[in-house]
Amino acid sequence: MFISSFIALALATLSSAVPTVEKRQSLARVVTSCTTPNTAALTFDDGPWVYLYDVSKALKAAGAVGTFFFNACIYDADEQKRVKYAYSMGHQIGSHTWSHLDLTTLTWDQIHDEMWRVEQALQRIIGVTPAFMRPPYGNYNDLVRQASFIRNQTLAIWDFDSGDSVGATVAESEGLYDQLVAEHPSTVLALNHETYGIHQVLPYAIQKLQGAGYRLVTLAECVGLAPYHSIGTPGTPDSTWHC
């Protein structure tokens, strides 16, 4: 009797010492490069800023389209106009989360909140639910991928960085594009930002890439996936449209 009680107590103690293992969830797909040969996807983070119009005009003048990953509050009237303009010009719109926080430092609920706020805003403003999310700083872990899978989103990274977000000069960014074209990979998934330097760098990059035989397409086209999960009717602004 004593031995049986001792064994039971030992087993209970051992059981309580073993951490609970969470059931493994499916992980969202992560794309780091295009899959369609001879395509280049020029992507632009951290908008929509005033530079968006010039970015769009440069792309359209070359018969090209790009992909914009928007973040922060986009309910401001001017920002709503920019979002609508980019979408109307045929560019792809994706999520860059709400507050541009490192998602790997957040809880499960906080990650979903960062994603949901942008998705809701885009549904309201242009009527679409984005199928792609770019995590700020390119940082993600399994928890982020699990949350993205539940939200049916693909994580979008890149295989070329123009350096504009870390202080690269126009000459340095152009030099990076020169090096890229010289290496001539089968495809290009380029990270850019809506910064003042884009006025010089983007036309240069377009010329170089098209001159090397690349088609400048959206991220969705270059990886062969749909850009949106749903396309509906935009909403009408009301008191709930706020940051």
Question: What report would you give on this structure?
Answer:
- GO terms for molecular function: hydrolase activity, acting on carbon-nitrogen (but not peptide) bonds; metal ion binding.
- InterPro entries: Glyco_hydro/deAcase_b/a-brl, NODB_dom.
- Its cofactor is Co(2+).
- It is found in: Cell membrane.
- This protein is α/β, with parallel strands linked by helices.
- The protein has one domain: Glycoside hydrolase/deacetylase (TIM Barrel), CATH 3.20.20.370.
- The chain contains eight helices and eleven strands.
- Strands 2, 3, 4, 8, 9 and 10 form a six-stranded parallel β-sheet that branches. The chain has a three-stranded parallel β-sheet with strand order 1-7-6, with helices on one face. Strands 5-11 form a two-stranded antiparallel ribbon.
- Helix 5 links the parallel strand 6 and strand 7 (154-156).
Distance between the termini: 66 Å
How much strand content do the residues show?
15-25%
Domains, number: 1
Look at the helices and sheets and give the structural class.
alpha/beta
What's the count of strands? 11
Radius of gyration: 22 Å
- Counting copies of identical and different chains, the oligomeric state is single chain
So what's the overall shape?
Answer: globular
Element string (H = helix, E = strand): HEEHEHEHEEHEEHEHEHE
Number of distinct helices: 8
Major beta-sheet overview: 6 strands, parallel
Could you name the CATH homologous superfamily? Glycoside hydrolase/deacetylase
| Helical content (DSSP H or I, runs of 4+) | 40-55%
- As for the CATH topology, it is TIM Barrel
Low-pLDDT residue spans: 1-23
CATH architecture descriptor name: Alpha-Beta Barrel
| Name of the top-level CATH class | Alpha Beta
Mean pLDDT: 91
InterPro entries: Glyco_hydro/deAcase_b/a-brl, NODB_dom
Subcellular location: Cell membrane
Pfam family, one: Polysacc_deac_1
Signal peptide: 1-17
